[in-house]
Write a structure and sequence with these properties.
The chain is an all-beta fold. β9 and β10 form a beta hairpin. Helix content is about 0%, strand content about 50%. It has a six-stranded mixed beta sheet with strand order 2-10-9-4-5-6, with no helix packed on it. The N and C termini lie far apart (about 40 Å).
Length: about 110
């Protein structure tokens, strides 16, 4: 079945970096646009970043532009989210999405 499994979250201090991974299975990954969303505590889930099927085009929410980078490895069926210069307001559960299915999410907490 279609499955998305996120990993790489954790508790970090402000200013450091994390890389999230999302391993995909059960569908033709290389044909799909992939996205990352996040849901802060007590708030709605919001868009973070998107990448085209080939990886040639990307897009970002204004709140993360210049700090986060989305990428993908179609040979490994994996999409990544490199998060640099993390801020306390980046605290959220981060979800991977293929326009149909959601992963289970991975928690990112930024606190000193």
């Amino acid at each position: 079945q279609v499955q998305l499994v996120e990993s790489g979250g954790g508790l970090v201090q402000p200013g450091v970096s994390l890389r999230l991974s999302c391993a995909a299975s059960g569908f033709t990954f290389s044909s799909c646009i992939m996205s990352w969303y996040r849901q802060p505590p007590g708030k709605a889930r919001v868009f973070v970043a998107v990448i085209s099927s080939s990886g040639g085009s990307t897009g970002y929410a204004d709140s993360v532009k210049g700090r986060f980078t989305i990428s993908r490895d179609n040979a490994k069926n994996t999409v990544y989210l490199q998060m640099d210069n993390l801020k306390p307001e980046d605290k959220a559960v981060y979800y991977c999405h293929n326009t149909v299915v959601w992963g289970q999410g991975t928690q990112v907490t930024v606190s000193s």
